[in-house]
Amino acid sequence: MKKIICLAFFASLLMATATPAMAQLKSTYKKALFIGAHPDDPETCAGGTMILMKQLGCDVVSVYLTAGESGIAGKSHDEAAAIRRVESADACAVMGVRSLWVGQIDGYAEVNLERYAQMKKIIEQEHPDVVFTHWPIDSHRDHRACSLLVYDAWRQLDHSFELYYFEAMTGMQSMNFTPDEYVDISTTVDLKHKAIMCHRTQEPQELIDDWHGPMEKMRGNEFQCRAAEAFVHQRWRTSEIVK
Ligand SMILES: [Zn+2]
Description:
Helices cover 43% and strands 17% of the residues. A seven-stranded mixed β-sheet has the order 3-2-1-4-5-7-6, sandwiched between helices. The chain starts with 9 loop residues before the first helix and ends in a 10-residue tail after the last strand. The radius of gyration is 17 Å and the shape is globular. By secondary structure, the chain is an alpha/beta fold. The chain contains eight helices and seven strands, in the order ααβαβαβαβαββααβ. The longest helix is centred in the C-terminal third of the chain and has 20 residues, at 204-223. The chain has helices spanning 10-13, 20-28, 41-55, 77-95, 113-126, 141-156, 189-196, 204-223; strands at residues 31-36, 59-66, 98-104, 130-134, 162-166, 181-184, 228-233. Helix 3 (41-55) crosses helix 7 (189-196), helix 4 runs antiparallel to helix 7 (189-196) and helix 5 (113-126) packs across helix 6 (141-156). Bound molecules: zinc ion. Zinc ion is lined by residues 37-38, 41, 140, 143, 168.
């Protein structure tokens, strides 16, 4: 039987405006970071949850490891980044969330001591109580790098926030992803798609029709709702030694 955590309480929360569970959720999650490798990753992987959390009063930040420098054919890194920053700003405006840029380069994401320290510092400064990022087994090396950096920050910050992994284009990018948490996004999926459509250079309709739309429906079938996003919760033991 699938475990349903407080995030999945959203499904029932939407049926009432002032349930004890909603009060608990609001007090539990005051600030959430959604950290993706590229400008369209947070939106496509978890946009429905981002919007839902924002609607429930949580401070939601869309964090981009890179600015999509390698993501537009025929454009220089600087030209592509400028275009994609605008697209992300539009998407964040649709979702009503803030954006934050880490400053790595698309296709060249680094995992080293400096980058570990940088991610730790960013998360420490934002002081979230929940963070979502890429599932680490992924065909895109930037996604893998992003996941490792966030996981390391989570350890270095002594598990001071809850950590969840999201899936990206499962079957082509995310691999071996078996979710243990679901969020019913039936009420926010349309707005999520509107945000995705802001990524005009990334064939957004194809992203929805061929990948994330079917994933939302499949996860919805698993969770018995119209559309859902699925996550893996990072578990830990209090006796763990942080290194
Ligand atoms: Zn990506």
